[in-house]
Design a protein that fits this description.
The structure is a homotetramer. The first copy, chain A, is mainly β. The first copy, chain A, has strands spanning 7-15, 28-35, 41-49, 55-62, 66-71, 76-77, 80-81, 88-106, 113-118, 120-121. Chain A contains no helices and 10 strands.
């Protein structure tokens, strides 16, 4: 049995799904999670907006001894997903310690742009 | 009532508003703040320069359970705002814990460039 | 004798070797390690995937008072290396404290894109 | 008198001065330092390489209540400066607490690329 490593509560304030793509790559964001443990990690994500109520408790499972690079466009709760082209923020709570990084590829123009941050660990 | 999460004092040393934009996107910076609490957060920003006195105590309100992606070009105090094309730095003090990320889109050239960091938490 | 500085255990959740390059630069990732100590640092890297078992205990040596910017494409264990174009994650354990940063140059398009993060320190 | 804020010892493992520039912007790196104190901060920088001895104790002064975005190409010690096109790393020790961010603009291609990280704080 391998031990869980990292933190259980992470924040990413700058979320944004670019609305368009040019060139050969697709604009997207990924929430990249590493689960070092032999056990599955169950994540609960809350999505915060500038002008409406949060979408709470979107569930994501990360298998044991695996990473998962979660496309934010794939997240949904009761048929509600994150709209493109609006600023939002992410709160991630895991039942066991994991490590979380956030990256965005913006391909609005033909030539792409990249950014990446470690999520801010709370606990 | 939801609890406040994060830290109350954050620093961003590398501020810079690109003076020009080409292509379809506008060069800009955003200070992205997440307020997980049910209460409003009141931020006080101080802007430091290389060769002049700081602009102190610019106020920004973040509503409860909301994120706000604040354009730095929108910040002003007594009619004074941040000039474009000069290096500066940001100190942010909030009355309740929040989480702060800083991102810049540089569209000086037709194809854009992106960078992002979590602000450095002090307290 | 100079003292070791930093941490011994670091995580990078978002690894990805871009499969193609255009223009004059080559797409690549670097794990940038600084060893401030007068002694050699021995690193053990584990590579985690989305859908297969990890590659464990890839060894890298960082000489004393030196930095090394390790290309991830150069890492191998028993003839197995990291495939291009698949999401993966990195765990790095050093026998003495070091500091670790991860950077990616994506030259899929003629004009390149850059991202960089400090690795997440665990211990 | 305003108080010093931050840390006194910072590490940046991934330094690299791009050797060429195309388009209208110049490739460069900046070490961005914020000194919140009313007193001057005296920085000592050590530059580490992959294959030669470090350049030690390059001095930089940051005036009180000011930021300074230091171009790495401007750093020199006894006539020795950082060569372009080689991987290196930075250790920064300040006599009073400051906050340090590192950013790179790569304009090797006509369209530029950006990356930025907070330096890793040691003490």
């Amino acid at each position: 049995m391998k031990q869980a490593k990292g933190m259980k509560h992470w924040i990413i304030p700058d979320g944004y799904i670019p609305p368009t793509s040019a060139g050969t790559l697709l604009s997207h964001e990924s929430i990249c999670v590493l689960n070092c443990s032999s056990e599955e990690a169950l994540l609960k994500l809350t999505i915060f907006f500038e002008d409406r109520e949060p979408i709470e408790d979107i569930l994501v499972v990360i298998p044991g001894r695996r990473t998962k690079h979660v496309r934010t466009s794939s997240l949904a709760k009761n048929g509600e997903s994150i709209p493109v082209g609006v600023p939002y923020a992410i709160e991630l709570i895991s039942d066991i310690p994991v490590v979380v990084q956030y990256s965005r590829l913006d391909a609005t123009q033909a030539e792409n742009a990249l950014m990446s941050v470690m999520a801010h660990p709370l606990a």
